[in-house]
Design goal:
homodimer; 345 residues; alpha+beta; 60s Ribosomal Protein L30, Chain: A; 2 domains; 8 helices
Chain lengths: 345, 345
C-alpha cells in the first residue's frame, strides 16, 4: 500500500472530499482505531465501495453512505434521489445489481419544513422504483436550530450476489470503459451553489444504474474484472484507486473521454479538469481486452449507456499511477486531494 | 392503527424524540411518501426496531440508527459505544443476537479534533468486541464550520436468525420483564448536559446486550413472544407501542420497576417519571406466564441481568393503553410526546 500523508490535528473539509486526504484519514484513524477485524469476505480494510460477506453459496454485499449535499435540490435531482442512487450504485459496482432492501435514516434541523420533507420522500420512492428496491427500515432524529444545516440522509443497502466484482481486479492489458459523459453532477451542483450564469443546461446525471450494470455483467461475464463509480474526486480519483489496488499503471486517452459541451465549457471557464469532477450515474468498468467490444455494444443499447466509451488501458509499468495521453503527449495525472467543492453528495 | 395527531408544518424537536409525535411523523410523512412497498418479511410499515427479509430458510434482520448525542462523552460511555450498542440491541430485540456485521458512517464538522475522532474509533472497537461483531464498511463526510455540531454517526447492522421476535407479539395473560434498572442513560445525559450537581453517581447503562438476550431466548424458547428496547421515550413509550401493536392493555406494577436510588432521587428532584427516561442497555421482554420464572432466572445469572424483574402483565381490556398500579390504586399512564431532552442518543 502506498504510504499516504499524515492526518492534520484538526479535520478540514478536504478529509470528506473523496480523494487522497480522505483515504489517509480512513487508513490512519478509522482503520487504525477499529483494527483489522476478521471477516469472511471483503471488509473495511479493502476500502472498496462496500463489503461482502459469505452467506451460504452467495455473497451478502452491504454499503453505507451519508448524504450532505447542498443545496438539497439541484438541476436533475435532489438529496433523496442522490441517496438512493448512490447506495444502489455502490452495490451495483460490487456486482450486486438486485438490491434486496435499503435503510434510510434522516436527521432534520428543528424548523425544517414538512412540505420539503414530503418532497424528499416522494423523490426517494421514485428512485427506489427505478432501481427495483424499497426502504425497509429507518430512523428519525431532530437536532436544534443551527446544530445541523437542514437535512442529512444516511442510506445503507444490502444485496445478494453470486460473484463480487472488486475494484482491485485490473491486470496489464485490461481496458477501461466509462458508461457515459463525465462531470455532469459536480458542475450542476457548482452552478446551483454559486448561481453561476453558465451557458447551456448543466444537469446532474444522478440515477440508479444497477440496470445498466446488469447489462454489462451479462455481456462481459468473467471478463468483466473491476468496477467503481467515479463519485467524489471524479474519474481521476477512482482510476488512481483502481490503479493502486490492481498494481497497474493506467493510460487515459483524453480524446476518448465523453464530456458534454456545456460541462466542457464550464470547466474551461473555471479552470477545472472534468476528470476530477463528481459523477452520480456513471461507472468505470475494467474488462479483459477481448470483451471490450461486446460490453460496449451492450452498454450503448441501454438508455443510460448510449455514450459509453473505452477511455483507457492498463500497463505493467508505473503501478498506481494514472497517465493522461492528450493526443500531443503524455503526462502524469495527479490524484486529487479531494473533490473541488464540499458537500457535493 | 390508532389515529395520531397531525404533523406541524415545521418539524420541531419533539418529532425526533421517540414518542407519539415521532411516530406520527413517520406514519404521515415517511411512510406516506414511500408507499407500502411489498417486502417478503417485516418492513417499514411494521415500525419495529428493524426489518426482516426472507433469505432461504433464515431471516436477514437489518436496522439503522443515526446518533446525535450531546455531549459526545458522558459518564458511562460516548457516542461510539452508544452507536454500536444501539444497533446491536435493535438487532437483538428482533431475535438476531449474532450480528454478522455493522456499517459506520461518520459526518464531521470542519475543525473537529483528530484526537477526539481517534478516541471515538477506539470506543467503537471495544463495543464491537463486546458484542462479537465488526465494522465492515463505512463512509466519511465533512461539513463546514457551523453546518453540523461536532460529529454524527450512523450505524447499520445486519444479522441472520431462524426466528424473528416482533414487538407486536403480546397476548392477554403474558408477563413483561425488564432486564434491569431503568432511566440510567437519560439521567446521566441530563446531568452531564446541564452540569447538575446531583447526589450520587449517575452513569449511563449503555452496553451491547445481545449476549443477555441470547440467554433469555434460550431459556424462553417459543414462549418468549415479544421484545423491544426502551430507548427514547423510555419504558413508557416502548410499552405503549407494544400494547397498541399487540392489541392488549398493559398493567405496570410500579413497585416492581427497578430504579437505582440516585436515578430515583434525580427524577424526584426534577419532577420526571423514570418510566419516560431513555435506556441504552435494557430490554422489555414479553413471555407466556409459564415461562416467566425460567427466563427471569436465566437473565439474573448474566452480569447485565442481575436486576431483571417482572414489571407488568397484559390484559384483554383497554387495548393499546398502559396503566400504572401504584400500590394505592391504578391510573392511566399517558404516552410521552417524546423524550424529555433532545439529542439523548
Amino acid at each position: 500500500m502506498i504510504r499516504r500523508g499524515l492526518v492534520d490535528d484538526s479535520i478540514g473539509l478536504k478529509y470528506g472530499a473523496g480523494g487522497r486526504a480522505m483515504r489517509a484519514l480512513i487508513e490512519r484513524v478509522c482503520l487504525a482505531g477499529i483494527g483489522a477485524a476478521p471477516v469472511d469476505g471483503i471488509g473495511l480494510a479493502a476500502m472498496d465501495d462496500g463489503a461482502a460477506i459469505r452467506v451460504g453459496d452467495q455473497w451478502l454485499v452491504i454499503t453505507t453512505d451519508s448524504h450532505v449535499v447542498h443545496p438539497l435540490e439541484f438541476p436533475g435531482g435532489d438529496i433523496g434521489r442522490l441517496a438512493i442512487s448512490g447506495t444502489v450504485n455502490d452495490l451495483a459496482v460490487m456486482g450486486a445489481t438486485e438490491p434486496l432492501a435499503l435503510t434510510c435514516a434522516v436527521i432534520l434541523e428543528e424548523g425544517f419544513s414538512r412540505a420539503s420533507l414530503e418532497q424528499v420522500y416522494v423523490s426517494i420512492r421514485r428512485a427506489c422504483e427505478e432501481a427495483g428496491t424499497t426502504i425497509v427500515t429507518g430512523d428519525t432524529k431532530v437536532m436544534g436550530r443551527g446544530e445541523i444545516d437542514g437535512l442529512v440522509l444516511n442510506t445503507t443497502g444490502v444485496a445478494l450476489c453470486k460473484r463480487v466484482i472488486p475494484d482491485a481486479g485490473l491486470e496489464p492489458g485490461d481496458l477501461l470503459i466509462v458508461t457515459g459523459t463525465i462531470g455532469d453532477h459536480g458542475m450542476a451542483i457548482m452552478a446551483a451553489r454559486h448561481k453561476l450564469a453558465l451557458e447551456g443546461d448543466l444537469r446532474s446525471d444522478v440515477a440508479p444504474i444497477n440496470g445498466l450494470i446488469r447489462v454489462a455483467l451479462a455481456a462481459g461475464g468473467l471478463d468483466l474484472v473491476a468496477m467503481k463509480d467515479p463519485t467524489r474526486g471524479g474519474v481521476s480519483s477512482a482510476l488512481h484507486e483502481m490503479a493502486e489496488k490492481g498494481g497497474v499503471g493506467i493510460i487515459v486517452d483524453e480524446m476518448q473521454v465523453p464530456v458534454r459541451q456545456q460541462v466542457r465549457a464550464a470547466c474551461d471557464l473555471l479552470g477545472i479538469d472534468p476528470l476530477a469532477v463528481a459523477n452520480e450515474g456513471k461507472a468505470l468498468i475494467g474488462v479483459r481486452p477481448d470483451a471490450a467490444d461486446r460490453v460496449l455494444t451492450a452498454l450503448r443499447r441501454h438508455p443510460l449507456g448510449a455514450e459509453a466509451a473505452v477511455i483507457g488501458r492498463c500497463i505493467d509499468q508505473h503501478a498506481g499511477a494514472v497517465m493522461l495521453d492528450t493526443g500531443f503527449g503524455r503526462r502524469m495525472l495527479a490524484e486529487p486531494e479531494g473533490e473541488l467543492l464540499p458537500r457535493i453528495c
